Fold this protein.
Amino acid sequence: MSSHKILIIEDDRDIAELIEYNLTREGYQVTTAFTGENGLKTAQSLRPDLVLLDLMLPGLDGLDVCRALKRDPKTDQIPIIMLTAKSEEADIVSGLEMGADDYISKPFSPREVLARIHAVLRRKAEPSPQEETRLSFRDLTIDPGRHEVRVANRPIVVTSIEFRLLYFLAQRPGWVFTRDQIMDSTHGADAIVTDRSIDVHIAGLRKKLGLCGKYIETVRGVGYRFRDPESS
């Protein structure tokens, strides 16, 4: 049984009630909001442990809610799982780039929702890698103790998944990793994620790192590797 607080933001009351029923059975404390505006206000006051966020909301839509939560220092660490229709790939990509942790395509089973929530909460509960080594490559510094990335001594804002992905690759410069290996390392073996989400996080990282983004190389047909600039 869990005492975690889950906020559902979903305008379809039948879907919301189905999710709430199954989460409550598992011991979660569930709160439901049926509009983006109410969902955002509830998240800011309740500070839930996780938000299930429908993207297609009337008024303030799911992407606007996600953006607002990730921009607010009081809520930016709350994990978000997006609930999406299969036709919303562009919105899925945008949500992941904003810092959402995962997405579930409709229609979905209650069992799938529970599995995704469990995986995200488990990752959140894992201790920070306080004793792992700080890595430096010319203008790029990755500090796991501070959970900080710097380029030319300027802090770069990255999501928790982006940080884990970058640190994983940079620990072994020159090694090529498949998307499956990257997913297992950064999301956990029990998480349900896709190749597409890894590609989105890589693209987001490259953009944020600027000139240092070229250190992350695509190996066609295989995956990705981190190139140590000193070895060039």
